[in-house]
Design brief:
six-stranded mixed sheet, 195 residues, Rossmann fold, alpha/beta
Length: 195
């Protein structure tokens, strides 16, 4: 199974946040589960919540392996979800969550992401986005600058997104901004509600 140290480093503080807003019986869809480290950890610590992992088809093996190994009754089998062509499903979730996804997609794909997130949220459902963001076009840290440069070497169309642009894009896809929560290492959680 793939392993990302950064996911281990931030999973505890994100869990603390979820424990404040997610209630018993809620269902959470994660878009871009990656290695599955976050969602398996959350499901093991919040067993009264149902967790639905998802990942692109060419990257789903690791999350499948981790989910199968965990054997948690509140952790569903991963879905294949490509934000450019979301699955034809009418299932709605209380929360849609994504961690460190936005810097790995293009500006065009940001619209696809918001469309997909809105598709799976009922009215007043909550979108939770964790990661680094530019503040008025400026990096929050030297580390963010280095990360952005690294990402752009691999693909010039991706990179850390401007906070204001993300908020405006979300608004155009049927979301109302709720709050910005400061996290460790200059990362943020952005909260939106579906309207």
């Amino acid at each position: 199974m793939k392993f990302i140290q950064a996911a281990e480093n931030n999973k505890t503080e994100i869990l603390r946040f979820f424990k404040k807003i997610v209630k018993s019986g809620d269902i959470v869809l994660e878009i871009g589960s990656g290695t599955g480290q976050h969602i398996v950890y959350f499901a093991s610590k919040m067993k009264d919540v149902v967790w639905q992992p998802s990942e692109k088809g060419d990257n789903i093996t690791s999350v499948e392996q981790r989910v199968n190994k965990a054997k948690l009754v509140n952790l569903n089998k991963p879905w294949v979800v490509d934000i450019g062509c979301p699955p034809n499903s009418n299932q709605l979730f209380n929360f849609v969550y994504a961690s460190n996804v936005l810097q790995c997609i293009s500006l065009k794909e940001l619209g696809h992401f918001m469309f997909t997130a809105r598709k799976f949220l009922g009215n007043r459902g909550i979108l939770v986005i964790y990661g680094p963001f530019l503040r008025e076009g400026k990096y929050a840290s030297v580390g963010d600058n280095l990360l952005d440069n690294y990402l752009k070497i691999r693909n010039t169309e991706i990179g850390i997104k401007n906070l204001g642009f993300v908020r405006e894009t979300a608004k155009s896809y049927g979301f109302e901004f709720l709050d910005t929560v400061s996290m460790e290492k200059n990362n943020l959680i952005l909260l939106f509600t579906a309207v």
